[in-house]
Design a protein that fits this description.
Shape: elongated
Order of helices and strands: HHH
Number of domains: 1
Largest sheet: none
Distance between the termini: 59 Å
Radius of gyration: 18 Å
Strand content: under 5%
Structural class: mainly alpha
Number of helices: 3
C-alpha cells in the first residue's frame, strides 16, 4: 500500500513538473509576442511572426490540458499512470520545445 502511495505521489510530481515546464515555455513565447508587437518590423512580418508564436502557444496549452486531465484521472480515479505514458509526455514536451525553438529562429532568419 505504501509503495502505491509513493508511486502515485511521484507521478503527480512528474505531471506538475511537466506542466510547469510547458507553462514556462508558453510564458516565454507570450513575451516574444509582446516583443514582436513592439518591434519595428513591417506589418506583414509582425503578422507572420505573431501567428507562428500564437500557434506554438496553442500547442503548448493543449498539451497542458492533456497532462492536467491525465493527472486528474490519476489522482481522482486512483488509476496509475504508466512509465510509458510519462515517457510519451516527456517526448511530446521535448518535441514542442524543439519545434518552437527551431520555428522561431527559422522564421526570424527568413523574415529579417
Amino acid at each position: 500500500m505504501n509503495i502505491s502511495s509513493v508511486s502515485s505521489s511521484s507521478n503527480t510530481t512528474n505531471y506538475d513538473s511537466q506542466i510547469k515546464q510547458l507553462e514556462a515555455r508558453a510564458k516565454l513565447l507570450q513575451g516574444q509576442v509582446t516583443q514582436e508587437n513592439s518591434s519595428k518590423d513591417n506589418a506583414e512580418t509582425k503578422k507572420t511572426k505573431i501567428a507562428l508564436l500564437q500557434s506554438q502557444i496553442q500547442q503548448i496549452e493543449m498539451q497542458i490540458q492533456k497532462l492536467s486531465a491525465q493527472q486528474s484521472k490519476q489522482t481522482g480515479g486512483g488509476e496509475k499512470s504508466t512509465s510509458a505514458a510519462n515517457e510519451a509526455n516527456e517526448r511530446a514536451i521535448e518535441s514542442i520545445v524543439a519545434t518552437t525553438n527551431n520555428s522561431t529562429s527559422n522564421s526570424i532568419d527568413v523574415l529579417v
